[in-house]
Amino acid sequence: MEIALQYDKNNLKDSIRAIKNSIFFKERAIQQLKIELEKKENQLQETIYNLINVCKHKWEDDYIDSLDGYKLSRPIRYCAKCELTDCTNS
Ligand SMILES: [Zn+2]
Prior knowledge:
Elements: H1 2-5, H2 12-54, E1 59-64, E2 74-79
Antiparallel strand pairs: 1-2
This protein binds zinc ion (ZN).
Zinc ion is lined by residues 55, 57, 79, 81-82, 84.
């Protein structure tokens, strides 16, 4: 609604057309970004799989602090060489 107020109220038809065009191009830009994001996520997963296959993991157990200070630490298993965790791909 605020955007609509920026347009000339005397040319309501033109204002609506301009807003609809703006919506169209923003939706298209978002769709393109989603496609690009999905491509990057796939590339990231492929890179992680490559790391999993290449590294001769040396698994170690440790504890990490919980975000809630009053709760107990959380156990974690990680590779000392590549730093993957047992929840990297979960
Ligand atoms: Zn490793």
